[in-house]
Design a protein that fits this description.
This protein is α+β, with helices and mostly antiparallel strands. Among the domains are: 3-86, no CATH class; 97-150, Roll (SH3 type barrels), CATH 2.30.30. It contains 4 helices and 5 strands; from the N terminus they run H-H-H-H-E-E-E-E-E. A hairpin with a 2-residue loop joins strand 2 and strand 3 (127-131). Helix 1 runs antiparallel to helix 2. The longest helix is centred in the middle third of the chain and has 24 residues, at 62-85.
């Protein structure tokens, strides 16, 4: 009641419109949260907030939380389906393991991985820190390395079978004598079009 009397006195003192001043006061009062209840009078009466020109934050809606939960569940199902189709697995890499580092392809003969193995010194999720034989450390994604096996080393007993690359001449093949080949008669390149035969020359 004190605030209402204050508004009336100010309106009379300034010579303003009392009805407009009362509407402004009541709108501000009804949309302002009460100090005791923590709710605005209009929200307590209408079960909703009135839209005013006062800037305010959009209240959090429970429906939005349900949509986010459903979106997360469906994304997880899609991830599991894709991992199962591609046979994706978490990398079995541990510290002190030997790995081969994937190298950039510069030509057609470039191998997928480097020949010299690296040693894993740290594993942080999908990121691994590897150390070369010279002591230089690199950080790479686990998809860029492959676990090193002893079978990857070339054995010294390997040899190349030359029979696969060189073929001996077959003695049963027929040899064609070029002297027996009858050559086709050579045709003259001179044009006789429009000329009379030689027997008619007098």
């Amino acid at each position: 009641m004190r605030n209402l009397n204050k508004v009336i006195k100010i309106s009379y003192a300034q010579g303003g419109n009392l009805e407009e001043e009362l509407n402004k006061f009541l709108t501000a009062y009804r949309t302002t949260p009460h100090g005791t209840t923590g709710k605005a009078p209009d929200e307590m009466l209408f079960k909703r907030r009135l839209r005013t020109k006062i800037p305010e934050l959009v209240p959090f809606d429970k429906c939005d939380e349900e949509v986010r939960d459903r979106d997360a569940v469906l994304k997880q199902k899609g991830k599991e389906y894709a991992d199962d189709k591609k046979n994706a697995k978490y990398p079995d890499l541990k510290v002190n393991d030997k790995v081969l580092l994937q190298q950039r392809k510069t030509c057609k003969t470039t191998t997928m991985y480097e020949h010299d193995p690296y040693e894993i010194v740290d594993v942080n999720g999908s990121q691994v820190t590897i150390k070369s034989g010279e002591g230089v450390c690199y950080k790479r994604n686990s998809s860029h390395v492959r676990k090193f096996e002893e079978s990857d080393l070339p054995s010294g007993n390997e040899h190349i079978d030359e029979s696969e690359h060189f073929k001996e001449p077959d003695t049963n093949e027929q040899v064609i004598d070029k002297s027996l080949v009858v050559a086709e008669p050579r045709r003259s390149s001179r044009s006789t079009k429009g000329r009379a035969p030689e027997r008619l020359d007098l």
